[in-house]
Amino acid sequence: MNVHDSEHIRGVMEEAGFLLGGSPADAQVIIYNTCAVRKSAEDKVWGSLGSLSSRKKDGQTVVVTGCMARKYGIEFLRKGKTVDAILGIESISRIPELASMRISTPFCELVSTWDSSIESLPTKRTISTKALVPVSLGCSKECAYCIVPIVRGPERSRKPGDILREVLSLASSGVVEVVLLGQNVNSYGHDFSGGINFAKLLRKVADVPGIKRVRFETSHPSDLSIDIVDSIAEIDEVCKHVHLPLQSGSNKILSLMGRGYSKEEYEDIAQEIRKKIPGVTLTTDIIVGFPGETEKDFSETIDVLGRVGFENAYLFKYSPREGTRASRMFVDDVSEQEKQHRLEILNIVQERQTMRALESLVGSTLEVLIENRARKGEYFLGRAPGNQVVLVGADGLREGMLVSVRIVKAGKHSLRGVAEKVVGRSC
Ligand code: 5AD
Ligand code: SF4
After folding, report:
1. Contact indicator for 174, 185 with CB cutoff of 8 Å
2. What is the distance in A from the centroid of ligand 2 to the CA of 152?
3. Domains and CATH numbers, the chain
4. Separation of 337 CA from ligand 2 center, angstroms?
5. Distance between CA 275 and CA 347 in Å, rounded?
6. pTM above the 0.85 mark?
7. What is the Rg, in whole angstroms, of the alpha carbon atoms belonging to the chain?
8. In angstroms, what is the span from residue 397 Cα to ligand 1's centroid?
9. Of 37, 122, 149, 400, which residue is the least packed, with the fewest Cβ within 10 Å?
10. Is the shortest distance between the CB of 183 and ligand 2 below 6 Å?
11. Which atom of ligand 1 is nearest to the CA of 314?
């Protein structure tokens, strides 16, 4: 979602005549689009602002937006004279005006309602044929560790008509793949009457002429209905990849986190997905070192990781976030050293699984959608339906082509392949 917000920021700036700069030293305006999900992300921003303070040039405008702007507000101004404007993400269309005015007194605009949307603003994407499309904003789950509901507000679904109009317009401008975004896409439509839900939305988006691929993230295990699983299985355009955050393999920790499912329920859904969607890629998020996590809880997480056999996993050390239930109610009692240790163990286990999953694809033929050039144009980088990165020799290929590729080699994080033939329509 943050990446998509940045696409809007680039779109707004370009439309106003600004160019994306090479380095902060030459820039007229420096924009921080921040994330508050973990402390490590925040530390990068504080560190970067600190080092910018002595190098900031006269006439340069420094803007902070995104979730940290909402969380810290005018606290940014107490950290010296580096920051000129603090804007909620809804206010990014003000940046060109603020940069041109060369403001001398700090400016702060944090809209307090969740009604406003930036979806009508222009976007500038890095991959021309693939677009991120939010279907819902905010989140109404109450995971104890998570700051998202605080900084992004409760879940609001976008109107299906607005989403489809956007996808139609994207398709007519050459986009062939859309990624439907939401903190919990599976509960899409819960706030509308008329029976629209995520399974129906998937079908409608897949039916838009010119759209060859539909992806979505993120799913929540409690809301991933059989209907949705069936739709993923049945609709050709929907990529066979489900990102399904597990967070922990211990029932005690899942309950403390307030995730709303047990490890047995999670494994049942994972099994159902694997049964109904042959060849599906299942990926996940896991947090290690949540308050109260013992060696035994952690070993249960390793066990679930192995049993489900995730093709990939994003692993995080628990980071207390002020204002969340976990930070109010629990002591952060797993030491930093122990969190690091658990993270490394999980990393080793998952890397092996990822390698094995990639190696199992060598010799097979996959449909790869070409995204952009890599390594000085020698290769094109594309993605297989399961979201694996595939490097393909560049001869005769173009961005947006759907190519049948024979996989010849597996690396640690990507595949190497040879293009056999162009399939379907190329744009
Ligand atoms: N500490 C560590 N990881 C977190 N995540 C969310 N909040 C925290 C936190 N406080 C992770 C979860 C989520 C992913 C986007 O970030 O695993 O799924
Ligand atoms: Fe955060 Fe939980 Fe919502 Fe995901 S589902 S954004 S982890 S509160």
Report:
1. no
2. 11
3. 2-109 (3.40.50), 130-359 (3.80.30.20), 365-424 (2.40.50.140)
4. 26
5. 27
6. yes
7. 22
8. 38
9. 122
10. yes
11. 17
